[in-house]
Design a protein that fits this description.
11-stranded antiparallel beta sheet; about 10% helix
C-alpha cells in the first residue's frame, strides 16, 4: 500500500472576512509505509490525517490548498486538490468539509472546478453558497457556478443542475489562481 508523505507544509494565517488561510505544499507518494508529517504547530492535525487517508492511493504529485471560513458549527473547510488524479481538462476536485467530533465530514466533493473559489454572501439550508469558476472540458465560455447546500450535500458537478450559473454575486475569494499555480511547487 502506498501512503503519501507531506514533504512540506506552509501555514499562513490571514484575515479575509472570517476566513482562515492555510496553504499546504505538495504530497508525493512514497513506497514506504511510514507517513512523515512536517507541520507548523498551528496546523490542524485532524485535517492532515483526513487528507492523508483520503489521498493515500494517489499515484502522482499531489498538492492542495485548504481554506476555512466561518466559525463553530458553521465553519467550512474548502480543500482544492491539485494533481493528475484529481484534475482534468475541466478543472480539479474541490472538497467541502465540516469539522465533526471524529474528524472531518464531507459535505461535498465537486469535480471540474477552477479558481477563483469563493464563499458567496448568500446561504441555502443554513450554510453558505460556494462559487466556483467553470471552463474547459467542453465548456467554451468560462462562468461562475453557485453550489448550494441541499440540506445534506453540495452538488458534485458545477456544470449540471442543481448547480446554477451566477453573475456578479457578492462574496469573498478563498482560493485564487495563484494558489492553484503554487500548490505543486516546493
Amino acid at each position: 500500500m502506498r501512503l503519501p508523505s507531506l514533504c512540506a507544509i506552509a501555514l499562513t494565517l490571514a484575515a479575509c472576512d472570517r476566513a482562515t488561510e492555510t496553504a499546504v505544499a505538495p504530497v508525493t507518494p512514497e513506497a514506504t509505509p511510514a507517513v512523515s508529517v512536517q507541520a507548523s504547530a498551528s496546523a490542524d492535525p485532524a485535517l492532515l490525517t483526513f487528507l492523508q487517508a483520503r489521498t493515500r492511493e494517489a499515484m502522482g504529485p499531489l498538492g492542495y490548498v485548504a481554506r476555512t471560513t466561518g466559525e463553530g458549527v458553521n465553519a467550512l473547510t474548502l480543500v482544492y486538490l491539485v494533481g493528475p488524479e484529481y484534475c482534468g481538462s475541466g478543472g480539479c476536485n474541490l472538497l467541502i468539509l465540516r469539522r465533526g467530533a471524529s474528524g472531518y465530514d464531507v459535505l461535498g466533493e465537486t469535480t471540474v472546478t477552477r479558481a477563483p473559489i469563493r464563499v458567496l454572501s448568500t446561504q441555502t439550508n443554513g450554510l453558505p453558497d460556494i462559487g466556483v469558476h467553470v471552463r474547459g472540458g467542453g465548456v467554451t465560455d468560462g462562468y461562475e457556478a453557485k453550489l448550494a447546500f441541499d440540506g445534506s450535500r453540495y452538488p458534485s458537478n458545477p456544470t449540471a443542475s442543481p448547480a446554477e450559473r451566477v453573475e456578479g454575486a457578492a462574496g469573498v475569494t478563498l482560493i485564487t489562481d495563484d494558489d492553484e499555480k503554487t500548490s505543486l511547487k516546493s
